[in-house]
Amino acid sequence: MYCLAIKKYLEDCGFEAFSPKAVLFDMDGVLYDSMPNHAIAWQESMAKCGLQMTADDAYATEGARGIDTIREMVKRQQGRIIDEVEAQRMYDIKTQIFHSLPEAPIMPGILSLMTQIHGDGLTIGVVTGSGQRPLIQRILKDFGRFVDEACITTAYDVTQGKPAPDPYLMGLQKAGALMPYEAIVVENAPLGVRSGHAARILTVAVNTGPLPDEELLVAGANLIFPDMQAFSDHWHDLIF
User: Fold this and answer.
1) C-alpha 12 chain-centroid distance
2) For FRET with 210, which of 17, 158, 217, 219 sits at 20 to 30 Å CA-CA?
3) What pLDDT digit, counting tens, does each position of 216-232 carry?
4) DSSP 3-state of 148
5) Read out DSSP for 177-203?
6) What is the pLDDT of residue 233?
7) According to the model, what pLDDT value does residue 22 have?
8) Measured between alpha carbons, how far is residue 239 from residues 14, 111, 213 in Å?
9) CA–CA separation, 88 vs 118, rounded Å?
10) Could you give the CA distance from residue 166 to residue 180 in angstroms, rounded to a whole number?
């Protein structure tokens, strides 16, 4: 199965070989089981701003820059075009509520997966739509033996967030100016999968949320696993 998926990826992109040197992880729903908290924070904060946002909306827009999500909601629901400064003020409310909630646990299976990746000599990067410093500091606290801060791409490193390819193209640069066929993207949300696919990187979807697998496959996932532990268990089936 894995050989066929990689072969199809190479054919679709016109690449001759798959030679991974880095794995680029999304953060929410991948490194941390944090999406339930984000869904609560989004709903409560947007209600304070006069906007309607459901839990499904939070999952569907996961991975995008928060200010981009807010600007689109304001445009759609209120018919207004707001600048990034106003959107940032609204996003700050969401951030405050998120950090008032209990700390999200590390995703089961991620440490065993990173241990294998690190042991195989691959660089580990993080590509997130967040730019909150406390979250970056937590990544370094929890995964510092695997992840260097120089390999973390945040919302402030790009002008176009997911689903544009820019975040993962920046991730390639930070991981050592790599080519797309030299990396693997690990995502859990359609917008992130679309971003990895648009960057022409082999994209593995790990379905840690409530969305059906089909949405991740339609978005462009090359492979899909039901959870992070399953991906960890099959890591060396993928990298051979």
Assistant:
1) 23
2) 158
3) 999 999 999 999 999 99
4) strand
5) S--GGGEEEEESSHHHHHHHHHTT-EE
6) 97
7) 98
8) 20, 17, 23
9) 36
10) 12
**Token pair for 69:** 């999500």
Q: How far apart are CA 166 and CA 55, in angstroms?
A: 26
Whether 54 and 38 have beta carbons less than 8 Å apart is answered as no
- What backbone phi and psi angles, to 5 degrees, belong to 149? -60, -30
Tokens of 12: 């679709």
Residues of the chain with pLDDT under 70: none
Q: What angle, 0 to 180 degrees and rounded to 10, lies between the N-to-C axes of helices 35-48 and 84-100?
A: 130
Q: Looking at residue 104, what DSSP letter applies?
A: P
Question: DSSP E strands: which ranges in the chain?
Answer: 22-25, 123-127, 147-153, 183-187, 202-206, 223-225
What tens digit of pLDDT does each residue of 154-165 get? 988 999 999 999
Give the pLDDT confidence of 183-221 residue by residue, as tens digits: 999 999 999 999 999 999 999 999 998 889 999 999 999
Exposed e or buried b per residue across 159-195, where buried means at least 16 C-beta atoms within 10 angstroms of its C-beta: eebbbbbbbbbbbbebbeebebbbbbbbbbbbbbbbb
User: 3-class SS at 123?
Assistant: strand
Q: Length of the chain in residues, anyone?
A: 240
Q: Which two tokens stand for residue 237?
A: 């089936």
Q: Give dist(CA 206, CA 189) in Å, integer.
A: 8
